[in-house]
Write a structure and sequence with these properties.
- Helices cover 24% and strands 40% of the residues.
- It has ten helices and 19 strands.
- The strands form two sheets. The chain has a 16-stranded antiparallel beta barrel with strand order 4-5-6-7-8-9-10-11-12-13-14-15-16-17-18-19. A three-stranded mixed beta sheet has the order 1-2-3.
- It is elongated.
């Protein structure tokens, strides 16, 4: 028969000997009655231990009265208790202490104590077998009820512990309650060759901090949050500058039918694509994603956006896909209206492009890591109108992406076409926006060593800077990246990578216009990066 006792809080702060005295008083005298074997689960300080008491000992206890009762009760209790716990690491050291105490108080004689110690080991083996027999005879319903009771006890204890910790925490100024501080930095060393015209190259041998982010977040109300991120970087003359990367109010409206987990950003906020992609490809520390590296767009801008999920969250997303980010059950979406030039440029026109990302998870139960994504920038104008036509050129982006994630493997394939770019500089001699196209393939495999903390990754980008040949044909490049990354603690990562780029005869450098007969030399770079994150 099962039984469970949870001991009052005041006894948990006492010694184990006082605890055992309480167990004798409350359990043996009040609860151990009848003529059945008893199996008790005893909880003390969050630790549970089974104690088995045989029916013949209970019967003996019931018959003993008068002057011998105190001694008999103690012997029976000590016998049953020690058989259950004497061999455990937590309680084994208390056995000799308790027996000595009982001898000192003349509850046990030295001979009784010696006999008890001699028989404990033999009896322990027998009682282990009895416990298994009783447990086997216990009905499933009794076991279920017992487990439920144990879980309730644990939950109650956890609540008490949380309250105790909160009560002991130092007072925090009102303005700092709900505030979190985060840091993200890329410490980079690169060695290689920089491409130059006429098949030339120049040496690259440089230590650099490519990014230094400090983020402060605040929960003002459950539906109203705020964020500010400072971005430290070096400008073109190697001067260190600090600028705002994100500064926005985040509103969290209630679910609206199938549209759930919504968030609205007002201010310098996320644009729809890159934050989504960078949570699948974790190597932003190596360099930007394909469409940003080509010079088309960046990750943040001033505007208003709304994003959310389709059909709530995917259950056990991290265990099934390896990520808890953008874990909508049937996908996610992000819509926004922005100034257009990005967070590090002032706006020179009144145009407000519309940006949208639509991601579907079509087989959420069968292949939860499979996602189909469309991203677009529509009705945009470039930010620079200083061209022969004297107009702000068109700016448009269309991208399709297929991605797959599981805890060990990530695969991404994307194809995109663009017209112009955010800055308005991607134009021909008449000021007309150039049309481009590109694609990128990425793979990341976590190796089965060091608890899956080492990853092997590779990426291939192709980008044609002038798809229609308005300035020149063969204005493209092919870039290959491969490397190893060691994520030793929660995103704190050391990465070693090799990158090489082969340019077409009329291509400009990445992010630049095509140049007829440019003939850039090959770009090569060995790179070591240390990502710091907390």
């Amino acid at each position: 028969m099962y039984g469970t006792w949870r001991f009052p809080k005041e006894y948990r702060e006492h010694s184990k000997f006082e605890f055992i005295q309480f167990l004798l008083k409350e359990t043996v005298l009040r609860n151990v009655r009848g003529s059945e074997d008893r199996l008790f689960s005893v909880e003390f300080g969050g630790v549970y231990k089974n104690i088995f008491i045989r029916k013949d000992n209970i019967k003996k206890f019931q018959k003993e009265r008068g002057g011998k009762m105190k001694k008999t009760i103690m012997i029976l209790f000590v016998w049953s208790l020690f058989v259950g716990i004497a061999n455990t690491p937590v309680m084994a050291g208390e056995v000799d202490i308790l027996i000595k105490k009982l001898v000192e108080k003349e509850i046990l004689t030295p001979s009784d104590a010696e006999a008890l110690l001699k028989e404990m080991q033999k009896e322990g083996e027998r009682e282990k077998g009895n416990i298994r027999e009783v447990a086997a005879e216990t009905s499933k319903e009794e076991v279920r009820e017992f487990k439920e009771e144990v879980q309730q006890v644990k939950a109650q204890r956890q609540e008490e512990m949380v309250k105790e910790i909160q009560d002991k925490q130092p007072a925090v100024p009102k303005g700092l309650k709900g505030v979190s501080v985060e840091m993200l930095s890329y410490l980079d060393y690169s060695n290689g060759e920089i491409p130059e015209s006429n098949d030339g190259t120049s040496d690259l041998n440089q230590f650099k901090i490519t990014r230094g982010y400090v983020t402060i977040k605040k929960e003002i109300r459950p539906w109203f949050h705020a964020r500010v991120t400072m971005d430290t970087h070096q400008d073109d003359v190697e001067d260190w500058k600090v600028r705002l990367k994100y500064t926005y109010a985040e509103l969290r409206p209630p679910d609206f039918g199938f549209l759930t987990d919504m968030k609205s950003e007002i201010g310098i906020g996320h644009m729809p694509l890159l934050d989504f992609e960078e949570h699948m490809n974790p190597y932003r520390m190596q360099g930007t994603m394909a469409i940003e590296r080509a010079g088309t767009l960046n990750s943040a801008d001033i505007g208003v956006s709304l994003r959310g999920y389709f059909g709530g969250k995917l259950e056990d997303a991290e265990e099934r896909t390896g990520s808890h980010h953008y874990d909508g059950k049937y996908g996610s979406w992000h819509l926004g209206i922005y100034n257009g030039p990005g967070y590090h440029a002032s706006e020179n026109n009144s145009n407000k492009p519309f940006e949208a990302r639509l991601t579907l998870r079509p087989l959420s139960e069968v292949i939860p890591g499979l996602q189909l994504t469309y991203f677009g920038i529509l009705a945009g104008k470039g930010n620079e109108g200083n061209n022969p036509a004297g107009v702000f050129p068109d700016y448009e982006v269309n991208m399709g992406m297929l991605s797959y994630e599981n805890p060990r493997l990530t695969l991404i394939g994307e194809y995109f076409t663009t017209e112009g770019n955010k800055s308005g500089t991607w134009v021909d001699a008449q000021g007309r926006a150039l049309k481009t196209k590109g694609y990128s393939l990425f793979g990341n495999l976590k190796l089965p060593i060091l608890d899956n903390k080492i990853s092997l990754f590779g990426r291939y980008d192709h980008f044609d800077q002038d798809d229609n040949g308005m300035i020149a044909i063969d204005a493209d490049y092919d870039m290959v990246i491969g490397g190893l990354a060691y994520d030793f603690y929660k995103g704190n990562t050391f990465m070693l990578a090799y990158e090489t780029t082969d340019y077409g005869p009329n291509a400009g450098k990445k992010g630049k216009l095509p140049v007829p007969d440019n003939h850039l030399g090959d770009e090569k770079k060995l790179q070591a990066v240390f990502q710091i994150k907390f």
